[in-house]
């Protein structure tokens, strides 16, 4: 049993949250007047932050500096403001001031202090990740600018299909670079459609590929012509033919390129026109892989004659020319506008044309 004093204390504790409202009600019962409520919390009390609380990107950029970001990364890596100050050649108070400025800009704590030093808060972890990305970008900028100081004063962004890369471009690039050692070629291999999209989206200055529906609106110049041949093992039943139509190969398993290949689309169309089933056994991403599969007896395949001469003649493979009209095709050089190309890309385009 609790004493009356203990019970009283217990009830007082229970009634504490209701004291203000009880007093107001008592006053109303005795005087007829209602006591005013306690003053509300100021309007600028803690509230969720909105985007309007933060500065504009440009203003934010002017308030933050790379050296503070670099120092914050160093603090997190050292786990101590004192050690970071020592490694950075600064006094600890100056480092602490930099951190305080960052926290003021972020409007949230960035570091947690503990007995052994500091560690980043969740917001600090976020800043650390972004700071590392920004500083890495600065390093890349330094390296890119350094290329100009070292005499590499130009860049050509070139996208090309597998046929051009396997047959013609290596020699053409070698000749160009020999005469223009200050220009670097960034070559990306892709399907013909992807090449055209890269040029249209300004991800590449120039593109070398076969014509497709994606090249509409692009300027073009002739580059090379190529002839398609059927590749097979030397002892294959079709190897005795001096030439043949592709329809004659439909009885055999096929090694093809991915569906996005212009050649592969033509083969599929040819099979449908003859109401035949294309026996596609394996799809690969490169002409070299196609040669290897055919060498192992897994099927036959279609590729440019020039690619076969470089990739297949050294293997136990045989090539038979195709008589189909589509087997003779052109490779073209594409640009959004040849007149508006950067000088290095314009020089490279002039070196590539015409080739037939």
TrEMBL record:
<feature type="domain" description="HTH lysR-type">
    <location>
        <begin position="64"/>
        <end position="121"/>
    </location>
</feature>
<dbReference type="InterPro" id="IPR005119">
    <property type="entry name" value="LysR_subst-bd"/>
</dbReference>
<keyword id="KW-0805">Transcription regulation</keyword>
<dbReference type="Pfam" id="PF00126">
    <property type="entry name" value="HTH_1"/>
</dbReference>
<dbReference type="InterPro" id="IPR050950">
    <property type="entry name" value="HTH-type_LysR_regulators"/>
</dbReference>
<dbReference type="InterPro" id="IPR036390">
    <property type="entry name" value="WH_DNA-bd_sf"/>
</dbReference>
<dbReference type="InterPro" id="IPR000847">
    <property type="entry name" value="LysR_HTH_N"/>
</dbReference>
<protein>
    <submittedName>
        <fullName>Transcriptional regulator, LysR family</fullName>
    </submittedName>
</protein>
<dbReference type="InterPro" id="IPR036388">
    <property type="entry name" value="WH-like_DNA-bd_sf"/>
</dbReference>
<comment type="similarity">
    <text>Belongs to the LysR transcriptional regulatory family.</text>
</comment>
<dbReference type="GO" id="GO:0003677">
    <property type="term" value="F:DNA binding"/>
</dbReference>
<dbReference type="GO" id="GO:0003700">
    <property type="term" value="F:DNA-binding transcription factor activity"/>
</dbReference>
<dbReference type="Pfam" id="PF03466">
    <property type="entry name" value="LysR_substrate"/>
</dbReference>
<keyword id="KW-0238">DNA-binding</keyword>
<dbReference type="GO" id="GO:0005829">
    <property type="term" value="C:cytosol"/>
</dbReference>
<keyword id="KW-0804">Transcription</keyword>
